[in-house]
Amino acid sequence: MPEMSRVDLTPAAAGLIRRLRAAHGPLMFHQSGGCCDGSAPMCYPEGEFRTGSSDVLLASLTVEGVDEPVTFWMSASQFERWRHTHLTVDVVPGRGSGFSLEAPEGVRFLIRSRLLTDAERAALDG
């Protein structure tokens, strides 16, 4: 049985991650919960965004065709509000932040969320 994760990827997001990985090397996501583009997941070269005690590692995502896991971080204050949700990273047409690696592609990552089931919450928090 696959390990429970708070974060998943749509096939479209996985495909974009493969292209970005080929162009930029290992990747990471960070979601700050700030205003405007800060509420969207931002994709960076791994280690370019400095994480610290104010951030929570939600997942190390396995993407077929990518050698290393893609980490997904969230600010601790944002996680407190989202801790009861399952997140799915998707990609849609449009322009996101100029700081996120997908910006020149004419698409942007976004989060789709749903509440965790009781069983998922117990498995993740247990």
Would you mind describing this structure in some detail?
The protein is an alpha/beta fold. It is built from three helices and seven strands; from the N terminus they run βαββββαββα. The chain has a four-stranded mixed β-sheet. A hairpin with an 8-residue loop joins β4 and β5. The protein is globular. It starts with 6 loop residues before the first strand and ends with a helix. The model has no long low-confidence stretch (mean pLDDT 91). InterPro entries: DUF779.
What would a concise description of this structure say?
The protein has 126 residues and is of the alpha/beta class. 23% of the residues lie in helices and 34% in strands. Strand 4 and strand 5 form a beta hairpin.
The count of helical stretches stands at: 3
Quaternary class: single chain
N-to-C order of helices and strands: EHEEEEHEEH
**Strands of the largest sheet, in order across it?**
3-2-5-4
Please describe the topology of this protein:
Layout: E1 7-9, H1 11-24, E2 27-31, E3 42-45, E4 55-61, E5 70-75, H2 76-82, E6 85-93, E7 107-115, H3 118-125
Parallel strand pairs: 1-6, 2-5
Antiparallel strand pairs: 2-3, 4-5, 6-7
Pfam families: DUF779 (PF05610)
Protein name: UDP-glucose 4-epimerase
InterPro entries: DUF779 (IPR008497)
Keywords:
126 residues, alpha/beta, four-stranded mixed beta sheet
